Amino acid sequence: MMKIDFSGLDPSMLVKGNAEGLDDEILAAPSFKLPVTVDFDGFQKAAVQMVKPAKGTTTLAFIFKDGVMVAADSRASMGGYISSQSVKKIIEINPYMLGTMAGGAADCQFWHRNLGIKCRLHELANKRRISVAGASKLLANILYSYRGMGLSVGTMIAGWDEKGPGLYYVDSEGGRLKGTRFSVGSGSPYAYGVLDSGYRFDLSVEEAAELARRAIYHATFRDGASGGVASVYHVGPSGWKKLSGDDVGELHYSYYPVEPTTVEQEMADVPIA
Amino acid sequence: MESVFGLVGKDFAIVVADSSAVHSILVHKTNEDKIMVLDSHKLMGASGETGDRAQFTEYVQKNVALYQFRNGIPLTTAATANFTRGELATALRKNPYMVNIILAGYDKDVGPSLYFIDYIASLHKVDKAAFGYGSYFALSMMDRHYRRDMSVEEAIELVDKCIREIRSRLVVAPPNFLIKIVDKDGAREYGWRESIKDAPVAAA
């Protein structure tokens, strides 16, 4: 049992030479027991590390009645340093499919470009466009084959194919999920909150764009690794279209304008006698 | 942590899995199907790393189909279980698949059977099995109430008991579960046990 030794602080305690048995405990220097752990303060750091995903960004996408809405921030951070506020995190794979970037920028850009090539080859070989399910499966299989080698990709493939709007989440661990609402990145829990509470399937395009923009804004407000410009794209039956790109700082003041406060006592210049 | 469990009844086998797709503290999806239908009379419920789970169960499914194409007759459940275990074992010392599998099947001559295959490629033919944190609650529930000749209703009652126990006692209990059944009429979805419903999507 670890005990803090306070004998150095208490000079009045004398160690009796012939004390034995129970007397040792009673007459020993005052101390209290510490918990038996290897790293007492480390558990909190470990808990925080578990929650902090490695992907410093906020991206989101959701399916609604008029297609797929895709939105992302534009900040790139290296630890505490903001390396760029103008990163394009929504990647245009082809005119009717978009991919989002979270994780390693180079990994996402390269593999999305590669996916675009494979989709075009599919079109040429089969004389028809590839489905969103097919495209996302191609990417997922590639990422799965590189599993464990350090790729960091958390992406959503959004598009419109013969079956209508499609949305898949694909990551570098090889996971592939089909769904209607996803958010990826360190700011995603914040975005999920706003997105989940405001989501309805029958939103109009403007309402859905505003919901996406608002969710990204709230995530950039709370997450230090997200910021810059909130871009919003819409994927409809005739392909994708960029709807808006607003600086989140300006969005803040448009959502929460500064109220002019009444001044109780104005300080006036003392008139020069 | 994902919960999968299963049991064998009089002339059927049931596999139950939770349906949450989770990434650290985030739940991406609450209606993920983790029980793959391998062929007309086989179910494979899997839990483990997301990528491995989907890819490995699909690999087994395609190989089961390939055997049927090549040979004209379907694989037996026992053969499928041994094939699965062999693949896990071969990959184990190089590039292991982190998946735990409960394989259920119905063969005309043997009847229903259940196989427990874990990620280090051990294989056991069992009457009841469970994986994940939920197994701590499901296994003892099944041990207490299971009988070899249960009817479908009694088995579903037992499954519901297990799900209720997992929901009330596990700190990060998954909200939704999917139940699939396989019997002489084939492998099919039996039902969902949902406590969180996703926002409704209008039918296309």
Helix % of chain B is 25-40%
Assembly state (oligomeric): heterodimer
Rg value of chain A: 29 Å
Give the helices and strands of chain B as they follow along the chain.
EEEEEEHHEEEEHHEE
Number-wise, the strands of chain B total 12
Structural class of chain A: alpha+beta
Largest sheet of chain B: 5 strands, antiparallel
Order of strands across the main sheet of chain B: 10-1-2-11-12
Strand order of the largest sheet of chain A: 10-1-2-11-12
Determine the number of helices of chain A (DSSP H or I, runs of at least 4 residues): 7
Average pLDDT reading of chain B: 93
End-to-end gap of chain A: 79 Å
Main location (chain B): cytoplasm
Keywords (chain B): Cytoplasm, Hydrolase, Nucleus, Proteasome
Subcellular location (chain B): Cytoplasm; Nucleus
GO molecular function (chain B): hydrolase activity
Task: Give a short synopsis of this structure.
The complex is a heterodimer of chains A (273) and B (204). Chain A has 273 residues and is of the alpha+beta class.
Please characterize this protein's 3D structure.
The complex is a heterodimer of chains A (273) and B (204). Chain A is of the alpha+beta class and 273 residues long. Helices cover 32% and strands 25% of the residues of chain A. Chain A has helices spanning 23-27, 42-51, 105-126, 132-145, 188-198, 205-222, 248-255; strands spanning 59-64, 67-72, 76-78, 81-84, 90-94, 97-100, 154-161, 164-171, 176-178, 181-184, 229-236, 239-247. In chain A, helix 5 runs antiparallel to helix 6. Chain A is flat, with a radius of gyration of 29 Å. The model of chain A has no long low-confidence stretch (mean pLDDT 86). With 204 residues, chain B is α+β, with helices and mostly antiparallel strands. Chain B has helices at residues 50-71, 77-92, 135-145, 152-169; strands at 4-8, 12-18, 21-23, 26-29, 35-39, 42-48, 99-107, 111-117, 123-126, 128-131, 177-183, 186-193. In chain B, the strands form three sheets. A five-stranded antiparallel sheet of chain B has the order 10-1-2-11-12, with helices on one face. The termini of chain B are far apart. The relative contact order of chain B is 0.23. The chains are: A alpha+beta (273), B alpha+beta (204). The interface between A and B is medium-sized, with 31 and 21 residues. Chain A: It is found in: Cytoplasm; Nucleus. Chain A: Its main location: cytoplasm. Chain A: The active site is at residue 57. Chain A: InterPro entries: Ntn_hydrolases_N, Pept_T1A_subB, Proteasome_bsu_CS, Proteasome_sua/b, Proteasome_suB-type.
